[in-house]
Design goal:
Layout: H1 2-29, H2 33-58, E1 71-72, H3 73-85, E2 91-96, E3 104-105, H4 109-125, E4 129-136, E5 140-147, H5 180-191, E6 195-200, E7 207-214, H6 215-218
Parallel strand pairs: 2-4
Antiparallel strand pairs: 1-3, 4-5, 5-7, 6-7
Helix pairs in contact: 1-2, 3-4, 4-5
Length: 221
């Protein structure tokens, strides 16, 4: 909560400066269709940041009510997928190993947002389908998230998980980014003892993320 309030306070001024300059650039280049499109996106993203910071400022210690109890890893995933199915036209295929362990995990906002981040990315980039497999045995539990989208660009694959990376080959600016979402998701999950592997799926054609825990660590979060 304290960090959220500090971030809201510290980022308010630079974001206001960015917004003023972007509005001036919009007036200067409003007749240039290509530049105008980029500036429109910049202005909208600044507004989005300001809305997020406003919520943090109003109540920086508010708890997210999404998943408000201890659940098994399987139920975590089911709840997260349900939240996306309400707004997505993509197909979610969840495969849960029948003999998988189902012990409850202490509610962790960091795990929720970490998993939600990667399922959200799969939903964003998939053409039609997202595949989620949950497996566990007496020692290890893992979640594998795959999609049938374009996959990770080869020029950034070796740097996946680092912030501020962007493929030079990306054609769709609405789906390209700076790698911050993956960096944040990876950081949140690794903080909670997870091991992550990023690669392109050999069977689905898109991206593949594997999140793995030692059960002894997952049970003690």
């Amino acid at each position: 909560g304290g960090q959220a309030a500090a971030a809201a306070h510290s980022l308010g001024t630079p974001l206001s400066t960015i917004k003023i300059i972007s509005q001036e650039l919009f007036e200067q280049f409003k007749n240039d269709k290509d530049v105008k499109k980029d500036i429109d996106l910049l202005v909208s993203q600044v507004d989005r940041c300001n809305e997020i910071l406003k919520r943090l400022t109003l109540n920086p210690i508010v708890e997210d009510e999404f998943i408000d109890k201890d659940l098994s890893l399987h139920d975590y995933v089911k709840e997260i997928v349900t939240s996306f199915q309400e707004i997505s036209d993509k197909n979610f295929d969840i495969d849960i190993e029948q003999n998988a362990n189902s012990f409850n995990v202490t509610k962790s906002i960091e795990i929720v947002y970490g998993i939600r981040n990667f399922i959200g990315n799969a939903n964003k980039f998939a053409k039609n389908n997202i595949y989620i497999a949950i497996k566990s045995d007496s020692e290890v539990s893992e979640i594998t998230i795959e999609d049938d989208g374009p996959g990770f660009p080869k020029d950034v694959l070796s740097k996946i998980g680092e912030p501020y990376i962007k493929s030079i080959k990306s054609k769709d600016k609405s789906k390209s980014g700076l790698g911050l979402g993956i960096f944040i998701g990876k950081t949140l999950l690794e903080k909670n003892k997870a091991k992550l592997i990023f690669r392109n799926s050999e069977t689905r054609g898109g991206a593949e993320i594997k999140i793995e825990w030692q059960n002894k660590n997952l049970a003690n979060i």
